[in-house]
Design goal:
Number of strands: 28
Helix content: under 10%
Strand content: 35-45%
Shape: globular
Largest sheet: 4 strands, antiparallel
Number of helices: 0
Radius of gyration: 18 Å
Oligomer: single chain
């Protein structure tokens, strides 16, 4: 039996998310849903509050043992633990945050970066300058500068610090694989997957679709195109956990993959998960509360968390895998 952990605090009118670009021209994510019910019979609101989320700027991020989010006042709240190091975040105000296996980083409201936790030499010392997005992988970190160029630092295992020279709008890092959506709407990947050579670095997804987001796991990645279609790619040899076989491809608004599993948020309000921890040759539909999720984040151990349309947190556990970190707060987070 999967367990759903729900935050109980309801706020009538939460603040708008200000992560990523600060010019107010951020694209709007369609969080509408059709009338119906979730897998556990909960009703779905057909007209949830509008949700605005700029590319690459997540206000909630789940790592293997810990979760961080940006509160309404811009400060960070973290709970759980990192594999190595202290998950306690720095002070100050932030626009976005990313949590990996053993480290976390955030983009401050002035565009500078702050990193904490971890044990990889140099990972605490991010480059100077102004940034819009940061993504933490396993022992390496990448970030998009304000001029949309990309830089990476940390351990250079499998060339994860050598992304294609380009300008980027979205960023997603995995274990030893990094992917991003460039400003021409192509997915570009670098590093290496679990079977060397199957995703040549750098690589461009060959179907030529116009992509809006991408998320990378261990040896595979999944992206959403402009028609809300979900596509996963990587080495066929790593598909033993069915991580390349999501439940259908159409009608998704967000995707998050980690390890050998993935979860995607559908426009009908269902979170579908697949891969390791969610059962072979099947998908698991996460029971949702009546309020809608704005974004989701999956950890490599299989648990996931989502930010609801009232700014509170909902988390779930797979059939097999890591449990949800204890102490899920009832604070209201940025949307």
């Amino acid at each position: 039996m999967k367990h759903l952990v729900l935050a109980a605090l309801i706020l009538a009118g939460c603040g708008r998310h200000h992560g990523g670009d600060d010019d107010g021209d951020s694209p709007e994510v369609d969080a509408s849903a059709a009338d119906g019910a979730t897998a556990d019979g909960a009703s779905i609101d057909a007209t949830p509050p509008a949700i605005t989320r700029p590319p690459g700027a997540l206000t909630l991020s789940a790592g293997d043992g810990g979760v961080c989010g940006v509160l309404l006042d811009g400060t960070l709240k973290c709970w759980g633990a990192l594999y190595m190091g202290d998950i306690t975040p720095p002070t100050g105000t932030f626009s976005s945050v990313s949590v990996g296996i053993d480290a976390a980083c955030g983009v401050r409201t002035d565009g500078t970066l702050a990193c904490w936790g971890g044990y990889v030499p140099g990972i605490f010392t991010p480059p100077s300058g102004s940034f819009t997005t940061v993504a933490v992988g396993n022992g390496f970190i990448c970030a998009i500068r304000s001029d949309q160029t990309l830089t990476c630092w940390g351990a250079n295992e499998d060339s994860v610090l050598a992304p294609p020279s380009d300008t980027y709008a979205w960023l997603g890092t995995g274990d030893i694989l990094g992917c991003g959506v460039d400003t021409s709407s192509f997915i570009r990947c670098w590093g290496q997957d679990a079977n060397p050579g199957t995703i040549p670095p750098p690589g461009i997804v060959p179907d030529g679709q116009a992509y809006t987001s991408v998320s990378a796991g261990y040896g595979f990645a999944c992206g959403l195109d402009s028609n809300t279609n979900l596509r996963c790619f990587g080495s066929a040899l790593t598909n033993t956990d069915h991580e390349l076989s999501p439940p259908g491809i159409a009608g998704y608004t967000a995707v998050s993959v980690a390890g050998y599993a993935g979860c995607a948020l559908s426009s009908t309000g269902i979170v579908n998960c697949w891969g390791k921890g969610y059962g072979a040759d099947e998908m698991y539909s996460v029971p949702l509360p009546s309020t809608k999720l704005a974004t989701i984040s999956l950890a490599a151990t299989g648990y996931g968390c989502g930010l609801q349309s009232d700014g509170t947190i909902a988390c779930w556990e797979p059939a097999v895998g890591g449990p949800v970190p204890a102490g899920t707060p009832t604070d209201v987070f940025q949307l």
